[in-house]
Amino acid sequence: MKGALFRRRLRRGLRHMRSALTVKMTLLYGALFVAIMGMSLYATRNAIDHYADRTVRQEMAIGSALFARMATLQFRQLDQSATVLASDFGFRTAVGTSDAPTIASALDSLKRRFGIDHALFVSVDGALAGDTDMLTETESSQLYDALDSGRRQGIVGWRGQSHMVAAAPVRAPMLTGWVVFSRNMGPKELAQLAQLSAVDLNPRLLPVAALPAGLRTTKSDDITTREWRRGSDDMLVQARPVENLVPSAPRMLVLEYSLTDAMAAYAPILNALLAFGLIGTLLALWGAFVMSRNLARPIIALESAARKVSSGEHAQVKVETRDEIGRLARSFNRMVNAVEMRERQIAHMAFHDGLTGLANRTLLREQIALYHQRAGKEGFALFCLDLDNFKAVNDTLGHPVGDALLCDVAARLAQTCPAGFVARLGGDEFALLVDDGAGHADQIGRAIVNSLAQPFHVNGHRIVAGASVGIALAPQDGADATMLLKNADLALYRAKQDGKGSHRFFEPAMDAEAQARRAMEVDLHDALRNGELELHFQPLFGLSQNRVTAFEALLRWNHPVRGMVSPLQFIPLAEETGLIIPIGEWVIHEACRVAASWPDHIRIAVNVSPVQFRSSTLNSIVLQGLARSGLDPQRLELEITESLFIDNVEATLASLHSLRTLGVRVALDDFGTGYSSLSYLRSFPFDKLKIDRSFIVDLLAHEGATAIIRAITTLADALGMETTAEGVENSDQLDILRAQGCGQIQGYFFSKPIPAGDVAQLLQKLDQDRRAA
Amino acid sequence: MRNLSFLILAGMATLLGSPASHAGDIDLKIVDAAGRPVSNAVVTVRPAGGVPDGPIRFPWGTTMVQENVAFSPHVLIVPVGATVRFPNHDKVRHHVYSFSKPARFEIKLFGKDETRSYTFKTAGAVALGCNIHDQMSGFIKVVDTPFAAKSGADGQVRIPRLAAGTAQVTIWHPLMKARNNEQLLLVPVPGNGSVSRNISVALRTSP
């Protein structure tokens, strides 16, 4: 329990610490300040050190100069006193007469008069008088030697004490001796000198011999300033030369000063500086910490907000400042909002149709799943609908009008069934989901058909769209969205097949039929590969030539299980699935190959499906077929139907002309049944018109039929086109056709379609018949 | 008068005695430590066999003149008992004194053309000074031998007609660094001819 609490605290502490920026900045500024303070302290200490050192040296120089000045003055005073005494006739008399008591008293008297510490008389023969007991024998003889060698003043040490000495010779008239006056130069006297300088230099006159060993020089007259440091106290000691009376026992003026003491005077400054430094450092640390924390906090907030946003949550940061970080926070918030808005847009786009704003297939499926979940006993109904004439609208009036129409359809659907959920599945396909709609689905279906049958007014165009509706009911027609949609689609397909503008309910049989279609589609796909397709050829007989002029290639499918499958069954399927393209290609190639072996005057006619005709590959397939077989293009006749002209006359004409440039012939199949506009006959010079079998069948039943044949042949002749009558089954028909000027006949009367292998035989037989006739 | 006859007698005796006993000369050259000739060095000789009895007289007289605020001559050799006259030829007055042991005296303030005299009864060196003029310095060397002379500017001094044998020669100079400013040496005097010596003496640089 306690451990857990501790861990939690530790974790919280670490999280604070994780703001490494704060720590870094605090440490950096702290370290910088400490460094600056350290340097400043060091520099100050150094400067003080230097200053103190220089001051001490200056003081020492001053002290030494003072000493020199004082010495000069005192030497002069002593010398004057000594000279006065030495030249006094009475004294000279006393000296001349060796009157010792008189000499002593004279010395004493003058000593007192001038305030001199000691007085001596040194006779020229070395005898001393006066204060003789203040110096030793050695010092006496040193004194004599100094005087004898002409020295007159200087510092001298007597019995360990320093003295300032001046001597004056006594002449009577010859040199008889010297009057020697001295002043004490002990620490006490020098201390008075010290009072004149700012610092206590503790001046002393010391024998050179007493100085530290390393500083002594062997040459006694080599007396220059010397300096050394002493002990832990860091004493600066200077020994300065003075005028010595006895060169063999020189003394120096020694000045010393404790640099430590000198520094101690500055200690308060340093201490204050140190204290300020410490306080400053603490302040700097605190300031850096506060500043960096203020800096880091919004960054941490941004980071955690960014983390939230990346995990899909909505997050905004508080804008606290107007600086760069504040701007960043504002930008971040704006960015989050923009991202979320775009997300919503994308989500909307993912689930909605961009044009109409309706739900798309995905959303519809979700909705279906939702309905499934909450469907009551009554269930719900799915309506799939498809506009009947949308493609024509798009092609003739253009896409903008088509799009506008779709929007109007969407609006009308919503209006027709306000309670329903409307979706656009793509193109002109819509779906409507109605909860609890199973009961009156029929009614709704009819309502939709009726509603969409009403004309639309789009951009000034009056459009009758029309719609077919397929209905699937849940749950019985599908337990999930996929199944339900598929079944509604099947119902729609049925509605379309059964004539447009109606509605159909899904029935299980539809599913079976659809599956059968699917199976045949698969089989057809394999048929080409497995060689189940073959061509049969039906001859076209030229009446004027009295011989076979051409064969029409007809496709047959011999399925190993299904047996012979009717072209009426599989050709539409092939066209629907697009398989007609490869199959058509095979047909052209095969027909050309077979025809190449026939006599040159016999042509081959091949049917071209509208789907095939519209594909861009037809030209190249024809070229390949011709090239591969070596067939003369003039012997290939492509048969097309009138229905090609319904959709796009211009494009159809362009394609026909490009085919014509290949040199192949073009025939119009099933003439007279479909669109039957004569304008395109004028637009394109077909090589042949094939008169539909329905007219031939009518020949014997209706009087007018002959007139129509007559009209067609006359028209064809006038336009320079051949004519072929299809479906000729008896000789009566043949007679009429011949009488009406028809060029060729085709039909069972002459020959049914035969396999390629039988062609040669047929031709041979016909040849024999002709010769026999 | 008595003095004069004594002098003549002594001279005759000297002249007469010379062929009978052997006699030689001493030639000295007095130089200082640097080898420069030293003048005013007084050489006195006590020949082997001692100093002959009789009065002593020197040809340079016994007068110490004060002239141009100086004693002239600077050094005067007189025999013991001689009375030296101190004529003042200066316009200023002088106060001649001596604290030297052989003759301590004072001749106080006598003016121009005044003459004082003093009789020197003891042999030795007498330093003369003037209490008025400290720079005045003169010396009277009182000797008890006839064989005495002072060196000239060339430092030469000749003592003639000395009895053969070892003679005690004393050299005195006012600045000599020695006890009583003199030094003693023994010189063998030949029976005939002369003996020459170079004598180096140490002098004080200043008085």
UniProtKB/TrEMBL annotation, chain A:
SMART domains: EAL, GGDEF, HAMP. Residues 378-508 form the GGDEF domain. InterPro entries: Biofilm_reg_signaling, EAL_dom, EAL_sf, GGDEF_dom, HAMP_dom, Nucleotide_cyclase, Rev_trsase/Diguanyl_cyclase. SUPFAM superfamilies: EAL domain-like (SSF141868), HAMP domain-like (SSF158472), Nucleotide cyclase (SSF55073). It comes from the Bacteria. CDD domains: EAL (cd01948), GGDEF (cd01949), HAMP (cd06225). PROSITE patterns: EAL, GGDEF, HAMP. Residues 517-767 form the EAL domain. Keywords: Membrane, Transmembrane, Transmembrane helix. The chain crosses the membrane at residues 21-43, 265-289. Residues 293-344 form the HAMP domain. Pfam families: EAL, GGDEF, HAMP. NCBIfam families: GGDEF. This is EAL domain-containing protein. It comes from Sphingobium cyanobacteriorum.
